[in-house]
Amino acid sequence: MVLTVNGMALATRTGRRPSTTRTIWDSSLGKKTVMAVSGLIMLGYLVVHMLGNLKIFFGADEFNGYAHWLRTLGSPFLHHEWALWIVRVVLLAAVVAHAVSAYQLSRRGRLARPVKYAHKRRRASYATRTMRWGGIILALFIVWHLLDLTTLTVNERAWAGHPYENVLATFSTWYGNTVYIVAMAALGLHVRHGFWSAAQTLGAGNARRERTLKFLANALALVLFAGFVSVPVAVMTGVVN
Fold first, then answer.
1. What is the DSSP string of 56-102?
2. CA 226 – CA 231 distance, rounded (Å)
3. What are phi and psi of 5, to 5 degrees?
4. pLDDT by residue (tens digit) across 190-232?
5. Torsions phi, psi of 8, nearest 5?
6. What band does 126 get if pLDDT is binned at 50, 70 and 90?
7. Could you say which DSSP state residue 231 is in?
């Protein structure tokens, strides 16, 4: 607000205080907390999703039955696919919150240090140094994955209502396998570093728990990578056909 007194302009403040939520969000710790919580939500989904994918080893009836169950989850209280859409909305919110927080923290870090270091030093692990590119790879993969097995847009041999056959169609192509395996490698590195960072941000990490947390981070990354990649490998080798 601007007031004029005797021809002089005086600037005044409204006196309105920012909300607590806005204050927390504007802080670096608040953004890191949002990243940690949203990351853990996505991690929980990934574990469940991987376990569901492994049903493909029990045959077409088992896998297709599982896919049908996902669409009727919560019935009759929830209508057809409502539970699935609730999960999708929560995941979308988590992905957006995670990405926005990561971008703003990265930008804040660059602005805080506008002048580059005179001598570059290797101060971080490979996973740490590739978190940004890993996030971009995973974002692109999510789009591909939805177009491939949800909307069936890029799956040339897709058969609506037959998820087992559609998975086989995807992993019967060299490009389908390549995209998936590269993305899962990026996911493993992202989870390995992200789980550790989330534990530190949420106060779960300390010197006594450091070895345990590192073991859990490595184990989660390895299990998720192996679990997801086992499906295209099984299709390629004829174990699943």
1. GGG-HHHHHHHHHHHHHTTTTTSPTTHHHHHHHHHHHHHHHHHHHHH
2. 9
3. -125, 120
4. 998 888 888 877 777 666 777 888 889 899 999 999 999 999 9
5. -105, 135
6. low
7. H
